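User: I'm putting together notes for a lab meeting next week and I want to include a structural view of one of the chains we've been expressing. I don't have a solved structure, so I'd like a prediction I can at least talk through. The sequence is below, exactly as it appears in our construct file.
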Amino acid sequence: QVQLVESGGGLVQAGGSLRLSCTASGRTFSNYAMVGWFRQPPGKEREFVARIPGEYGTTYYADSVKGRFTISRDNTKNTVYLQMNSLKPDDTAVYYCAARSYLSVQYNYWGQGTQVTVSS
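Assistant: Thanks for the context. Below is the predicted structure for the 120-residue chain, given as structure tokens.
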């Protein structure tokens, strides 16, 4: 059974940094077509943040985080990271890791989420 577990969330002041981690069990990330980070701000819909192919390819970011966030992976640790710099209060949200298998057109595995709160 595939499980994704996020960690690294917390409370940070505006302008600060956090690094989120997403670790997979049951299947290595290299076997996924895509791994992504999403977030859900309070009272809003879930939105895309960034994505990275499971093995080879380029990354892609939402305009709102481009230049501030970096997604990366370490397949030896079966972990995908989201480095978040220059954080803003608008970045406050529950952050979710998700993975899409090659046979799926949608992200079909999701973590439980980790809270990120940016104070002004």
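A couple of points you could mention at the meeting. The first strand starts at residue 3 and ends at 7. The chain has a mean pLDDT of 95.

User: Perfect, that's what I needed.
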